[in-house]
Amino acid sequence: MAEKEGNTHVVLFPLPGQGHIVSMLKLAQLLSTAGFHITFVHTERNYRRFLLTSSASHFHVPKFRFRTVPDGFPDDDTRSPLPFLELQESLDTKCRGHYRELLLAAVDEEWPPVTCVVADEVLPLSVEVPDELGIPVMILAPHSACSILTSYSIPELIRGGELPIPEAANMDELLQGVLGLEGIVRRRDMSIRAAKSIEDPFLRFELKMSKNLPRGRALILNTTESIDSLSLRHVRSICPTTYTLGPFHVLLRNIKDESHSASLSEEDRSCIAWLDSKPDKSVVYVSFGSLATMPREAFLEFQQGLLDSGYYFLWVIRPDMVEGGLEESELTASERRCFVKWAPQEEVLAHAAVGCFLTHSGWNSTLESIFAGVPMICWPFFADQLINSRFASEVWKIALDMKDLCGRGHVERMVKEVMSGEIGEELRKSSCEMADMVKKSAEEGGSSYTNFKELVAHIQSLSLPAERGGNVGEGMSVPAQGKSTFLMCST
């Protein structure tokens, strides 16, 4: 067994955005605990950003290496999250050949041939290139199972006339064509709700992205059987070999008792000392992730609503979060607030002083809040965040969904409801119950722990000659470079 582990080499290539990198890097660290050789592919810019963080100096994992590919943009380009199509085109034309060369040159005196690639579902070239080279591919979908189903159901929604959404339609009307989720998903909860025709680029992206799911030898999800039980049966009808290993960061700690940070931004730990000075369950933690931006007016409404609630709040405010930037005078002085550019989120959510998480409902943030047993107020921006917030409020009963609202009165009311009163007690009880289920999933004998062992065995089996039928570079022809028109997310 040790020899097989030593000859196993896994390449992982995430979409070059913070949320996807976090999920993929945690999975990479998990796979390294099996004794595998791990090659993690960063874009050149993101790797430089990673090296500037203190996390990089503490990242020491055996048989683990980073390799880089260009994203095709000038170094001084801001790589704004929009427009997606231009970024996709740049990655597809400027990165594809470099990625191919990386896979072909992956072998040296100390590193065996590539056993398989773990590809990001929403990064087409990470799937297509190894497939062309005859390298087995597994797919990581770094979002919730309910999000996967809503995307996969788009063709049926189009056939049924439910998409695109008509002008002046009731956005709270339930959709009937979402596989397994009838009676839950509203028009308002769809990531492509703004699409006016089937030629809308975001709608086309969702259609193409879902086609990647069945292409891999297996589908890997950062979730648990307990969280996504409603959706997983239907996901497995699409991808029979599906491994739920979540939450990755919890499973990693249970297996190796450590979890290296994957952040591309330096974490400001001064906020921990600030939290230490506050009573239990007295602080609202606010973070809208690494990509989302908001108008200045929305920021000011959130700030005033938080102040009017009377609770302490810790708010992550990235320099690029508010459109047009913020003046120092617009940050209201108050002993009840703490602003940081980036926070050690897992540690913050685990802190006794935190009583509520005002979040964008990104999947990593949602999982971290679930594990910590912290109820949420959800204000999603785009993509899977819209369906995550719906499930958090209506299915899991661990959050209030404030989707599409940001007036100071709404903010004040929802903060008070979650931090105190009957609604808050019910949400906290449900959050603690779900946290307990998630913790058990990641313990030895739990579903995530068991599924991880099965995934390791599956990957090891791909090293066998009968399964692979030869290794790259050993008499295999290399097809001509292809062309993809998938849409990409931000770096």
From TrEMBL:
Keywords: Glycosyltransferase, Transferase. Its EC number is 2.4.1.-. It holds the Pfam family UDPGT. The keyword Kinase does not apply. InterPro entries: UDP_glucos_trans, UDP_glycos_trans_CS. SUPFAM superfamilies: UDP-Glycosyltransferase/glycogen phosphorylase. It is an enzyme of class 2 (transferase). The keyword Cytoplasm does not apply. Transmembrane segments: none annotated. Belongs to the UDP-glycosyltransferase family. This is Glycosyltransferase. It comes from Crocus sieberi.
